[in-house]
Structure formats: C-alpha cells, structure tokens
Write a structure and sequence with these properties.
Layout: H1 3-13, E1 15-20, E2 24-30, E3 33-40, H2 49-58, H3 63-70, H4 76-88
Antiparallel strand pairs: 1-2, 2-3
Length: 92
C-alpha cells in the first residue's frame, strides 16, 4: 500500500487538520473532538508492514477495516460510525 493512497482516503473521509513536516501529520476530528493524530510518510514506495500497522492503529481500525478504508469499501459515514461507537463505549 502506498502513502498516497492512505493520504487520499484520509482527506476524503475525515475531518482533519494537516501539518507538513518530515512526514505529514493529520489531526483527525469527530464532532469537534480531537480523536487521533495520524502520521503518513512522504515517500512513494509501498509501506513497510510496521508503518502500515502504525497508521492503522492511529486511525483506530482493525486490519480488514483499514483495507476497506483505503480501497473505498468503507465510506466516510462508516468510519464516522466506528469512531462514534468508540466514543460511546468510552474508549476514546
């Protein structure tokens, strides 16, 4: 999976603020509340497994949800519902 695919999915499906430094940092918001900070590298090569896992964890998704998120099978509304569920359960 390439960093550009992940950046594209984040920018289309979330409320975010962006900070560009050595890496791109997205601060994800839901209902005006800061949920997470996601760090995505600038590179063009496929991500290493550990980097991909780190981004997945920062987005608060499991492996299948993350694949669906990037491959457009998980919509922005579906992602918001996942975050809302975590908020309701007090996990955030």
């Amino acid at each position: 999976m390439k960093p550009s695919e992940i950046r594209h999915a984040i920018e289309r499906k979330t409320e975010y603020q962006i900070r560009r430094r050595k890496e791109i940092n997205y601060v994800i918001f839901r209902q005006g509340q800061r949920i997470s900070r996601v760090t995505v590298p600038h590179g063009r090569k496929d991500l290493k497994t550990g980097t991909e896992r780190s981004i997945r964890n920062q987005l608060l998704l499991d492996k299948e949800q993350f694949k669906d998120f990037v491959n457009c099978l998980l919509s922005g509304e579906d992602y918001a519902a996942i975050l809302d569920g975590l908020i309701e359960r007090g996990e955030l």
